[in-house]
Amino acid sequence: MLFPPAPCCTLQPNQGRFDDVQKPASLPSRTPREKKELDDNKSKKGLGAIYEDEYVQKTGLVSTALSFSDEQKKEASILFKKLCLKLDALSHFHFTPKPVIEDVSIQANVPALAMEEVAPVAVSDAAMLAPEEIFAGKGDVKEEIELTQPERKRRRANKKRKFKAESAKRMVKPAPENASSYDGEVDQIGITVLAWNVFCIVSHPEWQTVQSSVHIQDDDVVDTN
Description:
ribonucleoprotein; rRNA processing; Mpp10; nucleus; 49% helix; ribosome biogenesis; mainly alpha
């Protein structure tokens, strides 16, 4: 009985070089996206400043900031803004606000509580007072049911005191300023009326008859004596 020969180990199987057909790798259907590296650092600019820079880059309007080291440029910018304000006031019928003029501001590195509050001179003291300091009310207005017994007695006594004061003012009538002249005028009028009455009585005919009879009686008395 014959056996097949044993396989011989050659160099190709040992190195893994086979003649088998290799399966091709599948290609992706879409182009791979580029992976961008994300920046984890916090930006020093705000979101509005970032959008502004992107808009300036897209439109190409690059604005160069004015260097404050050049004093002539700074002075020219301020004068131009003032001129524009005056021209706007002449040519517009509506109110136009004043332009914002950049100015150097000094900020002291001190807490806010340590800084002194400076008030303008033109402001009155009433503007810095609280409402209860300007107008002092009569206190808490309570209903009759809410009052206690001492409060009711106090309110009743105040009402009586006010009523007595008002009644005393009504009883005492002030004398007129021209009282003396008024009394003199009354006396003069009374004397005039009295003299007129006497004149009327004397000129009356009955009074004349009475007077003649009195004279006759007097003559008789004289003759008897």
